[in-house]
Each structure stands twice: as structure tokens, then as C-alpha cells.
Design goal:
With 210 residues, this protein is an alpha+beta fold. 30% of the residues lie in helices and 40% in strands.
């Protein structure tokens, strides 16, 4: 089962100018290498007159797929610095394209590395970062006389109240981080004097802004 991870919130775009060269960064959340390549190719089509469209992406639970492309820049000065930013920020399932329009002044190898790294960081900041934490959807079944207390306690906690179903008894659905399942169960039993029926249902990643 995939552990908690960080990724970009969604699409992001930024622009950075140095020595008259424009570095336009495009960031996208992707789940497969095919999605990453489609994203990169679409940017290349949009900016087919650019001097370079350099890219990198990192995909998979264990960062199984890592690719970098210099697209004509000196080897190791563009794609790799972009990829290193992804690694440093520990971002999974993320693709970045940095489009460069050359301004006529050479930056040198070190200058290119710094420029592409800065551009990648700016693009990520524009997209935003989220922490994806795996949660159980827990079902807590209680008699109606316990509803007010349980609902009030949950709303004041860090757990997330998803829904309440009113039938013969009351089913309260709550998102709980998987690592907190045992603590949640103990806490819920304390609140209800052991009168609650507690079960875990599905699992789901919930996103939290960083």
C-alpha cells in the first residue's frame, strides 16, 4: 500500500527572465508516464518556436520512473537540474517543462543549471504542493442518544466528519489517518462508554495544502 506522499496540487505556470532569456515553466500532476509525455509534447507544440523545451518527471510510489531531457542544452544543464528540484522537494507524480526563449547572452553551464533550477522551483510554487495522506473511512454506529456528543467531539477533533446517515441507529462516517485507527477506536469507545460499533470501510488519499 502506498505511503503518504507529496505532489503538486495541479497545473502551475510561471515565468523567469535572466540576461534577456525567458524561462517559462509548466507544471502538471501526472499519474503515468504516458500522461507525462502527452503533457510535455503539448507544451512543445504550443511553444514550437522556443529555443528549448527541457523537461523532467518523477512518477510512482518509489519514484520508479525518473526522466530528464535537456532538449539541446549542454548535457546535464537543464533536465537534470529540473529533476533534482523534484527530488529535493520530494514530489511524486509530477512533470515539469521549462521552455526557454534565448535572449542572445550565454549563461554558461553553471548559469544554466541555476536558471533551470530556479525556473522549476518557481513553477512548483505556482502549482502549489499538497500532502496526500491515506485515510480509512470509519463507520461509527451509535444510538440516537449518543449522536450529539459524538458529533460534537469529532467536529472539535482533527478527524474529518464525512457524513451522517439516519436509520434505525445513526451511522457516522469519519475519515481517520490509517496510522491513527487504533487511537481513534479507543477514543470513540471512551466517548460512548463502549456503546459504539466501529468498523473501517474504504481507504482514500486526502489532500492537505502545504
Amino acid at each position: 500500500m502506498r505511503a503518504n506522499y507529496r505532489t503538486v496540487k495541479g497545473y502551475g505556470e510561471s515565468e523567469y527572465v535572466i540576461q534577456r532569456s525567458r524561462f517559462i515553466t509548466f507544471v502538471m500532476r501526472v499519474e503515468t508516464e504516458e500522461e507525462a509525455l502527452d503533457f510535455i509534447n503539448n507544451i512543445k507544440k504550443m511553444h514550437h518556436t522556443a529555443t528549448h523545451n527541457c523537461s523532467a518527471y518523477m512518477i510512482g510510489e518509489h519514484d520508479d520512473i525518473q526522466k530528464a531531457n535537456d532538449d539541446g542544452e549542454p548535457s546535464g544543464t537543464a533536465g537534470v537540474p529540473i529533476l533534482e528540484v523534484l527530488k529535493k522537494q520530494k514530489l511524486k507524480d509530477t512533470a515539469i517543462v521549462v521552455t526557454r526563449y534565448y535572449g542572445g547572452i550565454k549563461l554558461g553551464g553553471g548559469g544554466l543549471i541555476r536558471a533551470y533550477g530556479r525556473a522549476a522551483s518557481d513553477g512548483i510554487a505556482a502549482a502549489g504542493i499538497v500532502a496526500c495522506r491515506l485515510h480509512y473511512l470509519m463507520k461509527v454506529t451509535v444510538e440516537y442518544n449518543w449522536l450529539g456528543k459524538v458529533e460534537n467531539e469529532v467536529r472539535q477533533s482533527t478527524y474529518i466528519l464525512e457524513d451522517i446517515s439516519y436509520t434505525e441507529d445513526v451511522d457516522i462516517f469519519i475519515y481517520v489517518p490509517i496510522e491513527d485507527e487504533d487511537d481513534f477506536t479507543l477514543w470513540m469507545n471512551e466517548i460512548t462508554n463502549g456503546q459504539a460499533k466501529i468498523s473501517s470501510m474504504t481507504t482514500k488519499f486526502l489532500e492537505f495544502n502545504i
